[in-house]
Amino acid sequence: MRRLIRHVRDHRHATRDQVIVLLSFKAGLRACEIAGLDWSMVLRPDGSLGNQLAIARTIAKNGSARTLPLHPDLRGALAKLHAARKKPREGPVILSERGSHMTPHSIVNWFKRLYRKLELDGCSSHSGRRTFITRSARLLPKTGGSLRDVQELAGHRSLSTTERYIAGDRDAQRKLIRLI
What we know:
Elements (H helix, E strand, L loop, with lengths): L1 H7 L5 H12 L5 H6 L15 E4 L10 E4 L2 H13 L19 H14 L9 H17 L3 H8 L4 H7 L4 H10 L1
Antiparallel strand pairs: 1-2
Helix pairs in contact: 2-4, 2-6, 6-7, 7-8
């Protein structure tokens, strides 16, 4: 993720591109959710930036609406983008080069080009989401949370779906066995 952020800082739309990366890695959003995110889902009623994302069922897969706390890095990037856009109260958060709504397919292609340019084979628009879910699951013991919390953040209907996203870690497994 840090490598992606460093790379997009040189882009013409650096602030927007940083938000796209952070929405994937720090909020675990799908391409359709990134493309469909509207300022009304990010802002408080008074027009100020909130502390959470309200993912509407209209943009969520299977209509699974959810609310996500905003990671500080993502909140900062959204604040910068909001200010650069002259503080809109509604409309798409992520705009295309032509200033219109981006489609889920254009987000998928945006990530594909970025990963290809950085020679990161095997990565896709879903890589940030997978990373988000795996890291969330690994950090659970520090928070007192459960896999159910990760499931809700991911917007999955079934815990078994969330479990498929979580990558194993051989080093952690060795440490765990030594503790038994």
